[in-house]
Amino acid sequence: xxxxxxxxxxxxxxxxxxxxxxxxxxxxxxxxxxxxxxxxxxxxxxxxxxxxxxxxxxxxxxxxxxxxxxxxxxxxxxxxxxxxxxxxxxxxxxxxxxxxxxxxxxxxxxxxxxxxxxxxxxxxxxxxxxxxxxxxxxxxxxxxxxxxxxxxxxxxxxxxxxxxxxxxxxxxxxxxxxxxxxxxxxxxxxxxxxxxxxxxxxxxxxxxxxxxxxxxxxxxxxxxxxxxxxxxxxxxxxxxxxxxxxxxxxxxxxxxxxxxxxxxxxxxxxxxxxxxxx
Length: 278
Ligand SMILES: NC(=O)c1ccc[n+]([C@@H]2O[C@H](COP(=O)([O-])OP(=O)(O)OC[C@H]3O[C@@H](n4cnc5c(N)ncnc54)[C@H](OP(=O)(O)O)[C@@H]3O)[C@@H](O)[C@H]2O)c1
Fold this sequence. Notes:
42% of the residues lie in helices and 14% in strands. It is built from 7 helices and 8 strands; from the N terminus they run H-E-H-E-H-E-H-E-H-E-H-E-H-E-E. The structure holds NADP nicotinamide-adenine-dinucleotide phosphate (NAP). The site of NADP nicotinamide-adenine-dinucleotide phosphate has 30 residues, from helix 2.
């Protein structure tokens, strides 16, 4: 019996420490009780993970939610589920493939034609550590989807956001940006050996740099721009890596009670619970 005491206590300590660390890093659920009736929110990659949870929460708070997803079947299913759970009928599924400039332009055009206003744009969709691959337009998949696609979408919707001010843009970044480097000579991994981890970190650093520059350029327009590090959340993001799929990581990651804490990186680099309401 005594031979099990040491391994069991080591496991208990490691597990407990991992849960405490996770709770410390993620900060806790958003405390805001604000409602957003009359506000329109556009959110990319909303059929699963953080995007779906955010869409659900904002639908619960009364917003008109436009979910932009590449797989319409998954998107319709998620939108239907959210409408059913929140009893908010204004949750819409819309085709958007961020790996295609054509699709992004069509999506933005549809929003501009059909929506009276866009109060919040949440650039959430992302792909992490996928095998080497290119978008329809020949960009590295992670740089293309995570940064360039959202860069284009945001710029196409800027006039609408300005007309709807006070409005906001929220970019889902990651603490992974800290080890990212932007290789301006070879953004698409054509001259050097492909490194999928670095490609993700480069794309997430691009999210942060884009946020800072856009925030600066939009000063005085009534549009605020923030980058969010969402914490470490059990989603499908690790589908190419196995991360979030082991028994250990899923136990630790799901131990927070199911809510998604939302943090943002301020200019000083601090993380704080973000008020997603108005
Ligand atoms: N989870 C974490 O711990 C964590 C940590 C730091 C940062 N983040 C960031 O949080 C964001 C959301 O990630 P998540 O964890 O919720 O991941 P997820 O569960 O894998 O969700 C990613 C979403 O992005 C969509 N997507 C991928 N490629 C797309 C494309 N070409 N066009 C349109 N949509 C596309 C996916 O659609 P499909 O379902 O069709 O693939 C899915 O809806 C990402 O930007 C990620 O970098 C997450």
